[in-house]
Amino acid sequence: MERKKEDVLFFPRVWLYARTGSGHRSAAEQQLDELREWANCNGYCIVGQSCECAKANSFWRPGLFSMLRAARRGDIDVVAVTRLSRFARKKSKLCKILAKLQANDVTLITTDVCAGIHTADA
Predict the structure, then answer these.
(1) Which range marks the domain in which residue 58 is found?
(2) Residue 29: CATH number of its domain
(3) How far is CA 22 from its chain centroid?
(4) Considering Cα of 31, then 33, then 38, then 43, what sign does the dihedral take?
(5) Which residues have C-beta within 8 Å of that of residue 77, sequence separation ≥ 6?
(6) Which of 14, 45, 91, 93 has the fewest CB atoms in 10 Å of its CB?
(7) Residue 117 lies in a domain
(8) Domain for residue 54, yes or no?
Protein backbone atom coordinates (compact mmCIF):
# COMPACT_ATOMS: atom_id res chain seq x y z
CA MET A 1 0.00 0.00 0.00
CA GLU A 2 1.49 3.29 -1.08
CA ARG A 3 1.08 6.24 1.27
CA LYS A 4 0.91 9.85 0.22
CA LYS A 5 2.63 12.64 2.09
CA GLU A 6 -0.72 14.26 2.84
CA ASP A 7 -2.15 11.08 4.40
CA VAL A 8 0.39 10.38 7.13
CA LEU A 9 2.40 12.18 9.75
CA PHE A 10 5.21 13.49 7.61
CA PHE A 11 8.81 14.21 8.52
CA PRO A 12 10.39 15.58 5.35
CA ARG A 13 13.50 13.75 4.20
CA VAL A 14 16.24 16.31 3.68
CA TRP A 15 19.60 16.23 1.91
CA LEU A 16 22.14 18.72 3.23
CA TYR A 17 24.52 20.18 0.65
CA ALA A 18 27.62 22.24 1.45
CA ARG A 19 30.37 23.44 -0.85
CA THR A 20 33.29 25.81 -0.74
CA GLY A 21 35.41 26.91 -3.65
CA SER A 22 38.24 28.14 -1.45
CA GLY A 23 39.75 24.73 -0.86
CA HIS A 24 39.26 25.06 2.90
CA ARG A 25 37.30 21.96 3.86
CA SER A 26 36.64 23.41 7.30
CA ALA A 27 34.44 26.12 5.72
CA ALA A 28 32.28 23.49 4.00
CA GLU A 29 32.12 21.41 7.17
CA GLN A 30 30.99 24.49 9.11
CA GLN A 31 28.18 24.98 6.58
CA LEU A 32 27.21 21.34 7.06
CA ASP A 33 27.18 21.74 10.85
CA GLU A 34 24.88 24.77 10.52
CA LEU A 35 22.58 22.85 8.17
CA ARG A 36 22.46 19.85 10.55
CA GLU A 37 21.50 22.10 13.45
CA TRP A 38 18.83 23.80 11.31
CA ALA A 39 17.38 20.45 10.16
CA ASN A 40 17.26 19.03 13.69
CA CYS A 41 15.60 22.17 15.08
CA ASN A 42 12.96 22.15 12.34
CA GLY A 43 11.92 18.50 12.43
CA TYR A 44 13.59 17.24 9.25
CA CYS A 45 14.85 13.70 8.82
CA ILE A 46 18.40 13.89 7.41
CA VAL A 47 18.79 11.13 4.81
CA GLY A 48 21.90 12.36 3.03
CA GLN A 49 24.57 15.01 2.94
CA SER A 50 27.37 16.23 0.70
CA CYS A 51 30.38 18.33 1.60
CA GLU A 52 32.59 19.43 -1.31
CA CYS A 53 35.61 21.59 -1.92
CA ALA A 54 35.17 22.45 -5.58
CA LYS A 55 35.00 25.57 -7.69
CA ALA A 56 31.46 26.54 -8.70
CA ASN A 57 32.28 25.97 -12.37
CA SER A 58 33.96 22.62 -11.74
CA PHE A 59 32.26 19.80 -13.64
CA TRP A 60 33.28 16.95 -11.33
CA ARG A 61 31.17 17.35 -8.18
CA PRO A 62 30.29 13.91 -6.83
CA GLY A 63 28.30 15.32 -3.90
CA LEU A 64 26.04 17.29 -6.23
CA PHE A 65 25.60 14.24 -8.46
CA SER A 66 24.68 12.08 -5.44
CA MET A 67 22.08 14.60 -4.31
CA LEU A 68 20.55 14.83 -7.80
CA ARG A 69 20.49 11.02 -8.04
CA ALA A 70 18.62 10.82 -4.71
CA ALA A 71 16.13 13.40 -6.00
CA ARG A 72 15.61 11.45 -9.22
CA ARG A 73 14.98 8.23 -7.24
CA GLY A 74 12.44 9.98 -5.00
CA ASP A 75 14.53 9.44 -1.87
CA ILE A 76 14.38 13.07 -0.72
CA ASP A 77 11.70 15.72 -0.29
CA VAL A 78 13.92 18.72 0.49
CA VAL A 79 17.43 19.96 -0.26
CA ALA A 80 18.92 22.45 2.19
CA VAL A 81 21.85 24.74 1.40
CA THR A 82 23.11 27.87 3.09
CA ARG A 83 22.99 29.94 -0.13
CA LEU A 84 22.10 29.30 -3.78
CA SER A 85 25.69 30.08 -4.73
CA ARG A 86 26.67 26.75 -3.14
CA PHE A 87 25.15 25.06 -6.22
CA ALA A 88 26.51 27.38 -8.91
CA ARG A 89 27.46 30.96 -9.57
CA LYS A 90 26.46 30.97 -13.24
CA LYS A 91 22.73 31.45 -13.72
CA SER A 92 22.53 28.93 -16.56
CA LYS A 93 24.03 26.13 -14.47
CA LEU A 94 21.96 27.09 -11.41
CA CYS A 95 18.76 27.04 -13.49
CA LYS A 96 19.55 23.51 -14.72
CA ILE A 97 20.06 22.26 -11.17
CA LEU A 98 16.89 23.95 -9.92
CA ALA A 99 14.90 22.56 -12.87
CA LYS A 100 16.04 19.02 -12.01
CA LEU A 101 14.94 19.48 -8.40
CA GLN A 102 11.59 20.92 -9.49
CA ALA A 103 11.03 18.11 -12.00
CA ASN A 104 11.42 15.63 -9.14
CA ASP A 105 9.13 17.58 -6.78
CA VAL A 106 11.99 18.44 -4.40
CA THR A 107 11.77 21.63 -2.36
CA LEU A 108 14.86 23.80 -2.01
CA ILE A 109 15.50 25.67 1.22
CA THR A 110 18.25 28.22 1.77
CA THR A 111 19.04 28.85 5.41
CA ASP A 112 21.14 32.01 5.17
CA VAL A 113 18.34 34.48 4.50
CA CYS A 114 20.53 37.56 5.00
CA ALA A 115 23.20 36.56 2.49
CA GLY A 116 23.55 39.14 -0.22
CA ILE A 117 21.14 41.62 1.37
CA HIS A 118 22.73 45.02 1.67
CA THR A 119 21.22 47.82 3.68
CA ALA A 120 21.88 51.47 3.04
CA ASP A 121 23.13 53.64 5.89
CA ALA A 122 20.43 56.01 7.10
Answers:
(1) 13-110
(2) 3.40.50.1390
(3) 19
(4) positive
(5) 5, 12, 13, 14, 105, 106, 107
(6) 91
(7) no
(8) yes
Prediction pTM value? 0.80
Question: Is 7 contained in some domain?
Answer: no
DSSP-derived secondary structure letter, 115: T
- CA 110, CA 47: separation in Å to the nearest integer? 17
Angstrom CA distances, 9 to 5, 40, 59, 105, stand at 8, 17, 39, 19
Q: Which residues of 74-86 are buried (b: 16+ CB within 10 A; e: fewer)?
A: eebbbbbbbebbb
pLDDT at site 78: 96
Output the tens digit of pLDDT for each of the chain's 122 residues.
555 555 555 779 999 999 987 777 888 899 999 999 999 999 999 999 999 887 656 677 899 999 999 999 999 999 999 998 888 888 888 999 999 999 999 999 999 865 444 444 43
Asked whether residue 95 is domain-assigned, the answer is yes
Length of the chain counted residue by residue: 122
